[in-house]
Amino acid sequence: xxxxxxxxxxxxxxxxxxxxxxxxxxxxxxxxxxxxxxxxxxxxxxxxxxxxxxxxxxxxxxxxxxxxxxxxxxxxxxxxxxxxxxxxxxxxxxxxxxxxxxxxxxxxxxxxxxxxxxxxxxxxxxxxxxxxxxxxxxxxxxxxxxxxxxxxxxxxxxxx
Length: 160
What we know:
Elements: H1 7-48, H2 62-70, H3 86-105, H4 115-122, H5 124-139, H6 144-147
Helix pairs in contact: 1-5, 2-3, 4-5
């Protein structure tokens, strides 16, 4: 016995497929917007720190190497990406340290660099917080209190 598809079932299936395609397109557009935003922000941070090649922010793996360089590491550490699990964990730790140093050099508290850990802990909200943090570092104004927290040198004007 053959099962036949009625007109109502065919229309409902086509509607479901159309909805899934629309959701896929929306997801791709959101991912593209996040990529463009984060690339612009990292490029601005690199330009502010007078990096030779800020355009590396637009290349998917090279942008992580750029973040490592801004954090004081050598770019070659990116090759740890080729070592499954252990290499990825080391890269994650190095990225957190790099973000910490970038935050401090921008005049923000270093613990702001822990924001990417929130991606792991709470997911989507942590990702949004990380994007906001990168935006603050790139285009925000530095806090005078934090920026001036370095000890001032005492003048050695001694009268004889």
